[in-house]
Design a protein that fits this description.
The complex is a heterodimer of chains A (250) and B (281). Chain A is α/β, with parallel strands linked by helices. Chain A contains 11 helices and 10 strands. The chains are: A alpha/beta (250), B mainly alpha (281). The complex binds adenosine-5'-triphosphate (ATP) and magnesium ion.
Chain lengths: 250, 281
């Protein structure tokens, strides 16, 4: 367990605890998300796992206030999710949406819009190793570079909570390592991370806690050590061993 | 005094001018000439006439004829001013319509789309009624001035700018909306960002507006009056000179207008091609 957890708890970050209560999200009569109760740790890194279509992206968008739950509530630090709390969060989308501007202008835009110190853009680009590409059109960056820029842009808002939706899917091992490094550094700086991934090895490297989703429901929720050493549900066990297909058939 | 020649009228005038020019310079030599041969001669004479006029027109262009320059300059001044004003007013309005949802938005969009097809003469007539001495804005004394022409063309193309920019920006907003909400941008910041990020597409919208303004004749004819050295622009001059039989000047202006239209099309094309492979991809 990383030592930073205690330090953050000591500074009272419990105000960031996210609680879901009887949360449901329906589309056209189908219940896509159904979470009776879930509490996410206020610090460190929570990894959300689950097969395609399990509802991971929907859950992030619900917690970030981009979509409204059909029923139930989301509490942050004991209070219902408010626009101000959403503003203190940042989300890196599964597919980054970058502005049609240069790399550095993408950062400048957010710094200006949020009233932050604009001289920080270069240091933010340094943090994600994009300083050399600052003046390139952002949309011509490679996939991995675009993801790094999207993370830098999210960090530019100085979030207390950072949601990342499969930021390393379809990236080469080097880019994956770079992004994991950036995320781990942000976590060390006290940003609470909620990270969606399919990659079991990556989850092992990053997670303090794991939430395992299946069919819009929380199948399992445990500390990383407990989850990876002895998953309790069949579906999680099958997922970890890479034999989910076999479980579905039986 | 305003000269209000309709397009049909000017075509008849062109034919009459050609016919009179022909009979003046080339009386037919043979009385017993076959009809086919006579027709052939006539055709050849008209072609010769046109070729001569084209030659003179090119001469005017090459010599940068003072009258020609004055007319082209006023045309550009009026239509570029109208385009600028229509954009300053129309682009933000298009952006607001693109990002907001309010009751009655559908009918508003239908109305603006319908206004895109406003006939220039109708716009000219409406502005004329406002600006004429007995009209509500008659005291401004703007009738038959370039300002009146700018007003009329602005009204003519503003709906085009609003409707097309609304479409462009709504598509862009569809792509950006969630990201912008995640960044907690205000409506104002969203609109500013859309206008800037859609700048290439919006420039083609402006060009479309300019193209319509510079090529229309009905509105500027009515409110400008086609007064020599004051409100005579390319389209009204072409109408007048053609009806007068002064084909070289009419053709020279026609060539400039055509070149301008092609330049606008080429620019739109270039911007599309440029942005497709560039940051817009
Ligand atoms: N607006 C919507 N209308 C209908 N169905 C939807 C909608 N949004 C999501 N879904 C469905 O909800 C389910 C969960 O979607 P979600 O995007 O959260 O999956 P995910 O866990 O992120 O999957 P992946 O790993 O493929 O990204 C999917 O079956 C999806 O088709
Ligand atoms: Mg997803």
């Amino acid at each position: 367990m990383p030592e930073h957890t205690d330090r953050n708890d000591a500074t009272g970050t419990g105000a960031r605890r996210i609680e879901l209560r009887a949360l449901a999200y329906d589309v056209a009569g189908t219940r896509l998300i159904d979470v009776p109760a879930l509490t996410l740790r206020p610090t460190g890194t929570t990894v959300v796992m689950g097969p395609n279509g399990a509802g991971k992206s929907l859950l992030l968008r619900l917690m970030h206030g981009l979509i409204r739950p059909s029923a139930g509530e989301i509490l942050v630090g004991g209070r219902p999710l408010s626009p101000r709390q959403c503003k203190a969060q940042a989300l890196v989308f599964q597919k980054p949406v970058l502005l049609r501007r240069s790399t550095v202008a993408n950062i400048d835009f957010v710094l200006k819009a949020r009233g932050k110190d604009r001289s920080r853009s270069r240091s933010l680009l340094d943090r994600v190793d994009l300083a050399a590409l600052a003046d390139r059109p952002a949309r011509r960056l490679s996939g991995g570079e675009q993801q790094r820029l999207a993370i830098a842009r999210a960090l530019a808002t100085e979030p207390d909570t950072l949601f990342l939706d499969e930021p390393t899917a379809s990236l080469d091992p080097e880019s994956v390592q770079a992004i994991e490094g950036i995320v781990a550094a942000a976590a060390r700086d006290g940003v609470r991370i909620i990270f969606v991934t399919h990659d079991v090895q990556q989850a092992r490297r990053l997670a303090d806690d794991v939430v395992f989703l299946s069919n819009g429901r929380v199948a399992e929720e445990a500390s990383a050590a407990a989850f990876f050493n002895g998953p309790e549900t069949d579906v999680a066990r099958a997922y970890l061993s890479g034999h989910l297909d076999r479980l579905v058939e039986t | 005094m305003p000269i209000t020649a309709s397009d049909g009228h000017s075509i008849i005038c062109l034919a009459a001018a050609l016919a009179s020019a022909k009979s003046a310079c080339k009386p037919l030599p043979f009385v017993g000439m076959s009809l086919v041969f006579r027709k052939f001669c006539r055709k050849r004479e008209i072609l010769q006439q046109i070729a001569e006029s084209v030659g003179l027109a090119i001469g005017l262009l090459l010599a940068a004829d003072a009258d020609l320059l004055e007319i082209v300059t006023l045309s550009l001044y009026v239509s570029l001013s109208a385009t600028s004003i229509a954009c300053v007013l129309g682009l933000p309005l298009g952006a607001i319509l693109a990002v907001t949802r309010f009751p009655g938005r559908g009918p508003v969009l239908v109305l603006i789309n319908a206004l895109m097809g406003l006939p220039p003469v109708v716009v000219g007539l409406i502005v004329y009624l406002q600006l004429s001495r007995s009209g509500p804005l008659g005291f401004l004394g703007l009738l038959y001035t370039p300002t009146a022409m700018i007003i009329a063309q602005t009204i003519l193309i503003a709906p085009i700018v609003v409707a097309l920019s609304r479409q462009v920006l709504e598509d862009l907003h569809l792509e950006y909306a969630e990201q912008f909400r995640s960044l907690a941008l205000s409506a104002r910041q969203t609109i500013q960002a859309l206008l800037w990020d859609g700048r290439f597409a919006l420039f083609t919208v402006a060009l479309a507006g300019f193209g319509r303004a510079v090529a229309e004749v009905g509105a500027v004819m009515i409110v400008g009056g086609n007064i020599d050295h004051l409100t005579r622009v390319m389209t009204t001059a072409i109408t007048l000179e053609t009806s007068r039989g002064n084909l070289p000047l009419a053709l020279a202006l026609g060539i400039v207008l055509l070149a301008l239209a092609m330049a606008v099309t080429a620019a739109v094309h270039g911007i599309r091609a440029g942005t497709a492979g560039h940051a817009d991809a």
